[in-house]
From TrEMBL:
PANTHER family: COPPER TRANSPORT PROTEIN ATOX1-RELATED (PTHR22814), HEAVY METAL-ASSOCIATED ISOPRENYLATED PLANT PROTEIN 23 (PTHR22814:SF336)
Alphabetical keyword list: Metal-binding
Endoplasmic reticulum listed as a keyword: no
Pfam families recorded: HMA
UniProt name for this protein: HMA domain-containing protein
GO molecular function: metal ion binding
Residue ranges constituting the HMA domain according to the UniProt record: 31-94
Classification via SUPFAM superfamilies: HMA, heavy metal-associated domain
Annotated source species: Eruca vesicaria subsp. sativa
InterPro entries: HMA_dom (IPR006121), HMA_dom_sf (IPR036163)
Domain of life: Eukaryota
PROSITE patterns: HMA_2
Amino acid sequence: MGVGGTLEYISELIGSGGSHSYGKRKKKKQFQTVELKVRMDCDGCVLKVKNSLSSLKGVKSVEINKKQQKVTVSGYAEPSKVLKKAKTTGKKAEIWPYVPYNLVAQPYIAQAYDKKAPPGYVRKVDPYVTTGTMAVYNDDPSYTSMFSDDNPNACSIM
């Protein structure tokens, strides 16, 4: 056992109160930020949502933007639990559905454009979902042979 292994062994003994727990390590929760859209009309609603989410175990901070209907929760809580706790207040809540305008390839398609979205944001859409239109590839060689790059004067339409 080298110096690094010895130090790790000693820190394990100190951290676990002297018992061996090599096989039973607890998985630490990661610090994360959860953004929610919560329907809030007044200051009472804001206070109710903030108090409810602050009481959740692992939550470090709760920031609310009433104008955008946006709640930002930072801490070690899971997003599903945060959403469930927000819904227990009786308010309509969902995971923040918007992304900045410049991150979407086509922000004005029907699925992305939302007139209720805050300024500079559009609804988050899956980039691989088609919008109902479909490109059709025609494998007919007569269209491609009408024009020739080798001889620009050989246009078969004229």
